[in-house]
Design brief:
Elements lengths: L1 H20 L3 E11 L7 E11 L6 H4 L2 E5 L2 E4 L1 E2 L12 E13 L5 H10 E5 L4 E15 L10
Parallel strand pairs: 1-8
Antiparallel strand pairs: 1-2, 2-6, 3-4, 3-7, 5-6, 7-8
Length: about 150
């Protein structure tokens, strides 16, 4: 009888722990942002990374411990606080912004895209690489400068 009670209580404990520890993050989307608002001779290029956590609750330490590695350089991933963070009951999606310090004289520079696709990884500061989702995609976007003499009707 004692073993039955002990095994039932340990099963319940394990099931409870299993649902809370599945916080494995995956990179689902990345965007290279070519900034034309502050452009002088070249675009300033930043990276937005979207990471999904398969859980319905996170502590600050669960989502604030990421770095982007490109070759031998590391960049902090700064979480953006947006509505997506709390949007789904089964998973939490958080967007991160990384100023890369890169410039490009043209939009959709293939060398920058290749650098992100082939030579970059997102890691957790404690150790471990964050895997890319099977539906991962990288896209390039541009910020547009709106002049004051444009008339809208």
């Amino acid at each position: 009888m004692k073993t039955l009670i002990l095994s039932l209580s340990s099963s319940i404990l394990l099931l409870g722990c299993e649902s809370n520890t599945n916080k494995t993050p995956t990179v689902v989307h990345q965007r290279l942002i070519y900034d034309s608002l502050h452009r002088q001779k070249a675009f300033i290029v930043n990276l937005e990374s979207t990471i999904e956590f398969k859980t319905n609750s996170l502590k600050h330490s669960d989502y604030d411990q990421f770095l982007l590695l490109i070759d031998k350089d590391s960049f902090a991933l700064k979480p953006e606080y947006n509505a997506d963070k709390f949007s789904d009951k089964k998973s939490i999606i958080i967007k991160y912004l990384s100023p890369l310090g890169l410039t490009s004289d043209r939009f959709e520079n293939p060398s920058i895209s290749d650098k992100i696709l082939k030579h970059s990884h997102i890691i957790i500061k404690k150790g471990g690489i964050v895997a890319r989702d099977s539906l991962y995609k990288l896209e390039s976007v541009i910020t547009l400068h709106r002049t004051s003499n444009i008339k809208t009707e």
